[in-house]
């Protein structure tokens, strides 16, 4: 029998569309728009009052000014920070003109959070002024030229700029620092929003610029700062904050260095520690990964090849190899920011390399006919990749060491390759791409080129490509085209490095560019 009308469920997309149309048609007069704005203001904890055709949504440190037309349409929306003149906001204007009240309410809530500084009225104003001064100093630093950064490259500006790439703060958007992005994927970009919050200890916060004027760099490439007694400041129970998006999984050694830079105690309460690969897997898949299971991941590489990476859980359970998620970093002085960002980049680079060997889905069993690589921790900032040689039953170990955000070395053991400069070149590939699969594919291809002809049984063990099991969805990792084999140089003239290693060097880069 057919279901009765009462038993049938309405089509959800149709219901949402009808509700959206009802919102649009219901808000077609000035009074209707005023009523809707008042309702949104109350939902977000803001005050509301009206003067003729202008609505004001007010908070302690800012207000939103909405000028209405007689028909209910919006003429202009302005945001005014404390002590500042109203500035037009195209973001809020377009949302109201489109009658997208849900997104308008969300953006208003974000704006309120940006200006929601704790404390009494006097303290709020003082902290807000200090935050504004710090933001202007960061903007000036970001504009200083740096000899070590390719200014035309957005990736270089983000990863190697003194304070990254800064999105200047606007009245309706906080100052945001873009400080790390994987060179290969370019997503996601790690950002830090500038904020301020209360704390239990009194700190001296700047109330005027702490940069020497005009702003300039010292011999080491860092900004020059005024001496503390030259900068007006106030003693307050507050500190600046870098709000991180997304949160960063940090190992204990690097996590403790945060407090060494800022001379502020790092809170240890409510911190949850887990093996670093487990946290990275959970962040990439947005699903909880069992901490007692090995992580096994299949990744597609160039020319139909596939890699299987195994992260043995027992090997990563040591305290030095566990990690905790960090979503905000407190500090008290502008000079802390470059060092903090450099430390965060260091951890992000380690995480990006490990995550490049993880597919979007998690598997709990290994599969035959794949190139297998075992990923083990070596130290708090290094790891090893163990795999079978293409010409024998022996094993090779590639040690990847990242002692700093700009330092990376790869050492190869067990390959019996006569040319030691290969390690430098593969280090350059890893540094240029931050991709484990891309580097290992290039390394393995080079080893096969140098190896004697393999037995049929050996060839069968490592087919060029293998089907991916249905339950494992591989992540595609593209590899730059490889240059063709060069013609031999005349006797007595050694070939240049870029020619000697061209079979594995990415097509878009010379060796000097990679290093």
TrEMBL record:
Naming one, the record's GO cellular component terms include: mediator complex
Look up the domain of life of the source. Eukaryota
Q: Which residues form the Mediator complex subunit Med1 domain?
A: 17-151, 210-357
Which terms does the record give in the GO molecular function aspect?
nuclear retinoic acid receptor binding; nuclear thyroid hormone receptor binding; nuclear vitamin D receptor binding; transcription coregulator activity
Keyword set, alphabetical order: Activator, Nucleus, Transcription, Transcription regulation
Signal peptide feature range: none
Q: Which Pfam families match?
A: Med1
Instruction: Establish whether keyword Zinc is in the entry.
Output: no
Q: Can the keyword Transcription regulation be found in this entry's annotation?
A: yes
- The record's region (Disordered) falls at 455-507
Q: Name one GO biological process term.
A: positive regulation of transcription by RNA polymerase II
Which ranges are annotated Pro residues under compositional bias? 487-498
Q: Tell me the compartments it is located in.
A: Nucleus
> What protein family does this chain belong to?
Belongs to the Mediator complex subunit 1 family.
UniProt function note: Component of the Mediator complex, a coactivator involved in the regulated transcription of nearly all RNA polymerase II-dependent genes. Mediator functions as a bridge to convey information from gene-specific regulatory proteins to the basal RNA polymerase II transcription machinery. Mediator is recruited to promoters by direct interactions with regulatory proteins and serves as a scaffold for the assembly of a functional preinitiation complex with RNA polymerase II and the general transcription factors.
Q: What is this protein called?
A: Mediator of RNA polymerase II transcription subunit 1
């Amino acid at each position: 029998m057919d279901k009765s009308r009462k038993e049938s469920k309405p089509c959800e997309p149709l219901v949402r569309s009808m509700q959206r149309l009802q919102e649009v048609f219901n808000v077609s007069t000035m009074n209707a728009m005023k009523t809707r704005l008042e309702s949104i203001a109350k939902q977000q904890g803001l005050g509301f009052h009206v003067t003729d055709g202008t609505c004001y949504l007010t908070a302690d440190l800012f207000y939103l000014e909405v000028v209405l037309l007689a028909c209910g349409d919006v003429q202009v929306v302005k945001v005014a920070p404390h002590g500042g003149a109203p500035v037009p906001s195209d973001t809020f204007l377009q949302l109201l003109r489109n009658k997208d009240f849900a997104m308008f309410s969300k953006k208003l809530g974000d704006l309120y959070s940006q200006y929601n500084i704790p404390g009494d009225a006097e303290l709020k104003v003082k902290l807000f002024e200090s935050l504004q001064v710090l933001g202007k100093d960061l903007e000036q630093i970001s504009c200083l030229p740096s000899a070590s950064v390719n200014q035309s490259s957005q990736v270089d500006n983000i990863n190697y700029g003194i304070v990254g790439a800064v999105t200047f703060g606007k009245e309706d958007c906080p100052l945001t620092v873009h400080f790390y992005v994987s060179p290969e994927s370019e997503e996601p970009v790690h950002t830090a929003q500038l904020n301020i919050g209360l704390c239990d200890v009194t700190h001296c916060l700047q109330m005027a610029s702490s940069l020497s004027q005009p702003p300039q760099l010292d011999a080491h490439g860092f900004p020059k700062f005024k001496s503390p007694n030259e900068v007006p400041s106030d003693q307050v129970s507050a500190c600046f904050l870098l709000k991180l998006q997304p949160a960063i999984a940090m190992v204990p050694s690097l996590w403790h260095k945060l407090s060494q830079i800022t001379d502020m105690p790092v809170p240890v309460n409510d911190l949850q520690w887990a093996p670093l690969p487990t946290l990275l897997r959970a962040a990439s898949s947005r699903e909880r990964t069992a901490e007692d299971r090995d992580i096994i991941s299949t990744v597609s590489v160039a020319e139909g090849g596939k890699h299987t990476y195994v992260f043995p859980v027992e090997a990563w359970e040591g305290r030095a190899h566990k990690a905790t998620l960090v979503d905000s970093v407190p500090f008290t002085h502008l000079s802390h920011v470059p060092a903090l960002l450099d430390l965060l980049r260091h951890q992000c680079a380690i995480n990006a390399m490990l995550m490049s060997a993880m597919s979007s889905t998690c598997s709990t069993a290994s599969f035959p006919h794949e190139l297998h690589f075992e990923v083990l921790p070596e130290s708090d900032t290094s790891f090893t990749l163990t795999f079978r040689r293409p010409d024998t039953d022996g094993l090779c170990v590639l040690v990847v060491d990242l002692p700093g955000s700009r330092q990376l070395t790869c050492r190869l053991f067990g390959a019996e390759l006569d040319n030691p400069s290969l390690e430098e070149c593969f280090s350059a590939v890893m540094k240029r791409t931050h991709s484990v699969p891309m580097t290992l594919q290039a390394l393995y291809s080079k080893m096969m080129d140098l190896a004697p002809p393999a037995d049929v049984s050996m060839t069968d063990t490592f087919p060029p490509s293998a089907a991916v099991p249905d339950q494992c969805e591989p992540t595609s990792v593209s590899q730059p085209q490889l240059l063709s084999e060069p013609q031999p140089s005349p006797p007595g003239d050694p070939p240049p490095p870029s020619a000697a290693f061209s079979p594995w060097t990415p097509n878009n880069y010379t060796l000097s560019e990679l290093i």
